[in-house]
Amino acid sequence: DADVTQTPRNRITKTGKRIMLECSQTKGHDRMYWYRQDPGLGLRLIYYSFDVKDINKGEISDGYSVSRQAQAKFSLSLESAIPNQTALYFCATSAGRGQVSANYGYTFGSGTRLTVV
Amino acid sequence: DAKTTQPTSMDCAEGRAANLPCNHSTISGNEYVYWYRQIHSQGPQYIIHGLKNNETNEMASLIITEDRKSSTLILPHATLRDTAVYYCIVRVAKDNAGNMLTFGGGTRLMVKP
User: Fold this and answer.
1) Residue B101, pLDDT score
2) Residue among B43, B101, B106 minimizing CB distance to A110
3) Contact B77, A17 (CB under 8 A)
4) Chain segment A5-32, per-residue pLDDT in tens
5) CB contact B57 to A (< 8 Å)
6) How high is the pLDDT of residue B98?
7) Using the 8-state DSSP alphabet, how is residue B5 labeled?
């Protein structure tokens, strides 16, 4: 099983619909992140969470919300999807300050391709 | 995090070494150089990181100049599967609030037969 699992892998939804993207991890990492990638561009941070009680906005949080249900679960919601939210979405994890890690790098999921029509 | 500059794209012949440069002239003393790669539409993958000494692992080698203002990622025997976008990122390892991984444009490496 993958260390970071994202569901669904692909989703097509209509404008105005609410949609949730889910992420779960088996790394035991405290920190989790949601990134968005548009075609030909780099990744941009939407939201991040340093622990279950901590949620922070990233550089492009408008139109999105998140929920950290447990250390292992971090979901991203689009309350009312719009076409310019069509993108590839990645969840990632990293070790927290109180945790030991071999490299303190980030582990990414395989992504969710979201299309809003 | 310090800003990095990478070439937009590079080609490499299969079986040859791929040398990917990165400039990070404003790097701070406690900042590491991290390299990630992203194979088409997959999640980015950690490759290697270093502070000031050269590093090697099963994937690549990292050469950091003595003044730490630039570095080179070396894939010793590039294969077609190494075709990807390679990101050089400078950051503290054990980050504090407000210090998340940020991605620039990266270098698109094309390995050719």
Assistant:
1) 77
2) B43
3) no
4) 999 999 999 999 999 999 999 999 999 9
5) no
6) 53
7) B
Closest partner CB to A105 (pick from B46, B96, B97):
B46
Q: Give A5→chain B minimum CA distance, Å.
A: 11
Q: CB count, 10 Å around CB of B88?
A: 26
Q: Is A9 on the interface with B (CB under 8 A)?
A: no
The letter for the amino acid at A92 is A
Instruction: Measure CB to CB from residue A111 to each of B43, B45, B96 and give the nearest one.
Output: B43
Which residues on neighbouring strands pair with residue B61, listed in sequence order? B56, B74
* Strand-strand pairing, B61-64 and B55-56: antiparallel
pLDDT in tens, A56-113: 999 899 999 999 999 999 999 999 999 999 999 999 998 877 777 666 788 999 999 9
Quick check: B9 and B107 in contact, CB under 8 A? yes
Residue B80 three-state SS = helix
**Min Cα–Cα distance to chain A from B14, Å:** 24
Write down the H helix ranges in chain B. none
- Inter-residue contact A14 to A80 (CB < 8 Å): no
Q: At A7, which amino acid appears?
A: T
For residue A109, the tally of other CB atoms under 10 A from its CB is 25
Low-confidence ranges of chain B (pLDDT < 50): none
User: Contact, A81 vs A50, CB < 8 A?
Assistant: no
B35/A contact by beta carbon, under 8 A = no
Q: Using an 8 Å Cβ cutoff, are A46 and A56 in contact?
A: no
Q: How far apart are CA A27 and CA A4, in angstroms?
A: 8
